Amino acid sequence: MFVRDRALPATGAAARSLPDQRELVAAFGSHQGDPSTDHPLIDWARSLATLHRQRHGNPLAAAGIDCRRAELVATIDTWVATQLPRRSCTEHLRAGSLGATVDRMAAAHAHASHLLHTADKVSDDRVHAAWYRLASLADEWTDLLVGAVRKA
User: Distances in Å between the alpha carbon of 152 and those of 30, 44, 58?
Assistant: First the structure.
């Protein structure tokens, strides 16, 4: 059901660029196995979004889902460390983890999408606030990428 974790050879920061915020947000809304990209971070982002949707639909499975999320966050952080080995590209972020940032974005996307599809009116303030939260996290992701490029 989930994309198997796969490591790519560490050939430096330029070998594979990190996906931008639009690519991540698109991944959160796409289906597992969508062949639109072969970037492992996109696959992991898609898996995180799926896990957040499953968690919302089945709260009794939260513990197992949260364990899998933690594994994916660690996988992302390990992959980034091998791709950007010179310095930590996340030291300027509060969370200190690129994987945690992707996980927060996936959670925000799942929440915003759920509200969009279940609110009585699309103009509901909760819907707007949820999409605004996702946009703020997407900006945080962009700041992370800019910091990674400067430090690599």
Answer: 30, 23, 41
Q: What whole-number distance in Å separates Cα of residue 68 and Cα of residue 51?
A: 8
Give the ranges where 1-152 is alpha helix by DSSP (H).
21-29, 40-57, 62-83, 98-118, 125-151
Tell me: the pLDDT tens digits for 94-141?
446 889 999 999 999 999 999 988 888 888 899 999 999 999 999 999
Contact between residue 151 and residue 144 where contact means Cβ atoms under 8 Å apart: no
| Spatial separation of the C-alpha atoms in residues 47 and 33, rounded to whole Å | 10
Query: How many residues are recorded in the chain?
Result: 152
- Measure the N-to-C terminal CA separation of the chain; round to a whole number of Å: 34
Nearest to 133 by CA among 102, 98, 109: 109
- Return the number of other C-beta atoms located less than 10 Å from residue 84's C-beta: 20
Q: Under a CB-based contact definition with an 8 Å cutoff, are residues 104 and 95 in contact?
A: yes
